[in-house]
Amino acid sequence: MSIRFFAAALGAFAALAAPLAVAQVVAPSRLDDVVKSGKLRVCTPGDYKPFSLYKPDAAYEGLDIDLVQAAAKSLGVEVEMVKTGWPTLMKDFTEKCDVAVGGISVTLDRQKAAFFTTPYMVNGKAPITKCENVAKFQTIADIDKPGVTVIENPGGSNERFARANFKQAKIVIFNDNVTIFDEILKGNADVMISESVETIVQSKLRPGLCPVNPDKPLQYGEMAWLLPRGDGAMKAWMDQYFHLAKASGDYDRIVNKWLR
Fold first, then answer.
1. Which whole-number Å values give the CA distances from 27 to 76, 91, 113, 231, 236, in the listed order?
2. Under a CB-based contact definition with an 8 Å cutoff, are residues 209 and 194 in contact?
3. How are beta strands 191-195 and 209-211 bridged, if at all?
4. Domains plus CATH for the chain?
5. Cα atoms found within 13 Å of the Cα of residue 55, Cβ hemisphere only
6. For 220, what's the count of Cα atoms within 13 Å in the CB-facing half-sphere?
7. pLDDT tens digit string along 40-91?
8. How many C-beta atoms lie closer than 10 Å to residue 154's C-beta?
9. What's the predicted TM-score (pTM) here?
10. CA 62, CA 53: separation in Å to the nearest integer?
């Protein structure tokens, strides 16, 4: 190969590679839009204590709310909350929001339409029931029997778990995720399957209810935030936020505030 030919080939390669390199550097990201607008639009159902709860005064509180407020502050923007529901979570998120939070379980189905942050909590499925019935509902087989009523909120991973595992027990769907646990105390249902953390929190709020083996959940699970699919810059920033929050102790302080 002559020196002249080699130089020409190298020049042609450089001409082709340069636009690609520039395109990679300036690839558009929702992160840039958020910074430019000064607002981080956050979707949340707001009915899942201790992660996110919508209050009568239209404010939100919870573990995820504190975390996303801290993330927005680090980004130099304000949070704009967007109320959604579990059945419409994915649609509302893709159409209206930059991130979705509030005790969201990582699932492959959701992964089809969105990215997840690196999971910030391991939190499997566990039953909650009246304290006198804990011994009766130790396993899936114990629950999946005729005459047992399982109550679940609609459209989320709790309902999907129940329908996938309970074929003989009666499954009742209850639309109010805030008061759903009272239905067990009233005797309208025997058991609910939810994240182990929530079963612990609800048992403290409602004397008479007890979690069933929350340290040994029926199914492994992780929680994370939803992010726009394909947006590597947005995901990298959020993952770094969680990494630094955990390293600094800020994450533990927020979690302990809501779970201790």
1. 21, 25, 20, 9, 14
2. no
3. unpaired
4. 30-122+222-259 (3.40.190.10), 125-211 (3.40.190.10)
5. 8
6. 1
7. 999 999 998 899 999 999 899 999 999 999 999 999 999 999 999 999 999 9
8. 13
9. 0.77
10. 6
